[in-house]
Amino acid sequence: MAIEEIKNIKQGKLIVFSAPSGSGKTTIVRHLLGQKDLNLEFSISATSREKRGEEVDGKDYYFLSTEEFKSKIKSEAFLEWEEVYRDNFYGTLKTEVERIWSHGKHVIFDIDVSGGLRIKRKFPEQTLAIFVKPPSIDELKIRLKKRSTESADKINMRVAKASAELATAPLFDVIIENDVLENALKKAENLVDNFINS
CA–CA separation, 47 vs 168, rounded Å? Predict the structure, then answer.
């Protein structure tokens, strides 16, 4: 399905949250989904990585094998996709955005920096792209360690990637520094509310 075909559906807005891993974007997105008056629905990403902990297919991610993911790339089923690490793919299925818009809702993404910027480029007018910035790289490392979901090697890979991701922050519409969570939540809520109602 081409982007143009998606555009035939009554379109809502697209709210993109991107950040280095451990910045708190998922916490912010969950908070916004709880604000019923914003009329948001979460865009579930597809991934070829293994499930972590209590993750559920079709709720947290659409878990695909590497082969399935590559096949969908070939058939142009993705709005955006990226190989984040070797054979570790993430992407947004066009059918996911179509599904949410058909419910008359706005789409909210918790998405990798490159993917967020691709969506902004494809839908410049109807996308609000927000970058969530950690107070520092050291704080980021502490947060990732506290999760206890990944090896020290994986954490180091994420921290190294974070430096490159932070350099892209000025390409986003807005930067929210997540130092005090309560303030970051309030700022995010106001930004999204203003954008949806603009």
Answer: 23
Q: What's the CA angle centered on 97, arms 94 and 99, to 5 degrees? A: 105
Q: Confirm if 64 and 46 have CB atoms less than 8 A apart.
A: yes
Can you read off the two tokens belonging to residue 105? Answer: 């809702």
CA atoms within a 13 Å half-sphere pointing along the CA-CB vector of 174: 19
What would the DSSP string read from start to end of 24-57? SHHHHHHHHHT-GGG-EEE-PPEE-SPP-TT--B
Q: Which two tokens stand for residue 123?
A: 């839908």
CATH superfamily name and code, 3-196 = P-loop containing nucleotide triphosphate hydrolases (3.40.50.300)
List, in order, residues 6 or more apart from 124 with CB less than 8 Å away: none
CB atoms within 10 A of CB 63: 17
- For residue range 68-111, what is the model confidence (pLDDT) as tens digits? 999 999 999 999 999 977 889 999 999 999 999 999 999 999 99
Q: Where are the domains of the chain?
A: 3-196
Indicate if the pLDDT at residue 5 is higher than 70. Answer: no
